[in-house]
From TrEMBL:
Localization: Cytoplasm
Coiled coil regions in record: none
Protein name: Ribosomal RNA small subunit methyltransferase E
Role noted for this protein: Specifically methylates the N3 position of the uracil ring of uridine 1498 (m3U1498) in 16S rRNA. Acts on the fully assembled 30S ribosomal subunit.
Any GO molecular function: methyltransferase activity
Organism: Neolewinella antarctica
Ribosomal RNA small subunit methyltransferase E methyltransferase domain ranges (all copies): 75-229
SUPFAM superfamilies according to UniProt: alpha/beta knot (SSF75217), PUA domain-like (SSF88697)
Length: 234
């Protein structure tokens, strides 16, 4: 199945947004009368028939198939420091979207090697991963902020964990996290979180967790954490 994404799609006559129209015409060679499958990123699934199409515009007739009440019985927020190699950070976004993530908050930490990101480009990576994995929910991407700001914005009622290398007898995430509800998991940069940042996280009610005995790259740790939380809820 080839999915199209349009956050403003609705039943009846509708013009696909320009990027998706170009993809339908130039890449997939769609023609009048062809059927399209669409999602709105908010749980809605749609089927449409191409009414007219050109390089610049694709007009469609849309029917609502179904609307999901929720993405899942749980939700996950990932606080993660962007990697020095932006390709690795894009890989985090792609794979965590495929696994199932609700919100990704890029953070600046003491050991961060990347101080800026292009949010618009990264949002396209997430969108593509959502469509490729045939999902109807688009994860949200926050603007880059300090680790302290991200801690302040974390859900006070949810479970909150920090993947930390400096703890003693740190429990493993899969033995600590409980199914259901909202989970926030924080993953640091290549150099890990500093002791001061770990203390700051504890003051914000985060608990230290381990992701296993090996030392993991940031991208491996992020994907491992999100997958562990997903497995506990499958």
């Amino acid at each position: 199945m080839q999915l199209f994404y349009d956050p403003d799609v609705q039943r009846g006559p509708h013009a696909l947004r320009a990027e998706e129209a170009r993809h339908a015409f130039q890449v997939l060679r769609k023609r009048v009368g062809d059927e399209l499958n669409l999602v709105d990123g908010k749980g809605g699934w749609y089927k449409a028939t191409v009414a007219s199409i050109s390089k610049r515009e694709c007009l469609i007739d849309v029917t609502l198939l179904r609307r999901e009440a929720a993405r899942a019985s749980y939700s996950t927020t990932l606080l993660v420091a962007p990697t020095k190699n932006i390709d690795r950070f894009e890989w985090i976004l792609e794979k965590t979207t495929e696994i199932g993530i609700d919100f990704i908050q890029p953070i600046l930490t003491q050991h961060s090697e990347r101080k800026n990101i292009r949010t618009d480009r990264l949002e396209r990576v997430i969108e593509s991963a959502m469509k490729q994995s045939l999902q109807a929910w688009l994860p949200a991407l926050g603007n880059l902020c300090s680790f302290a700001e991200a801690l302040q914005q974390s859900d006070p009622a949810g479970q909150k964990y920090l993947a930390y290398l400096g703890g003693q007898n740190t429990p493993q995430l899969h033995r600590t996290c409980r199914p259901g509800g909202h989970v926030t998991i924080a993953v640091g940069p290549e150099g890990g979180f500093s002791p001061a940042e770990a203390e700051l996280a504890v003051s914000a009610d985060f608990n230290f967790v381990s992701l296993g005995p090996q030392r993991l790259r940031t991208e491996t740790a992020a994907i491992t954490a999100v997958h562990t939380i997903a497995q506990l809820n499958w």
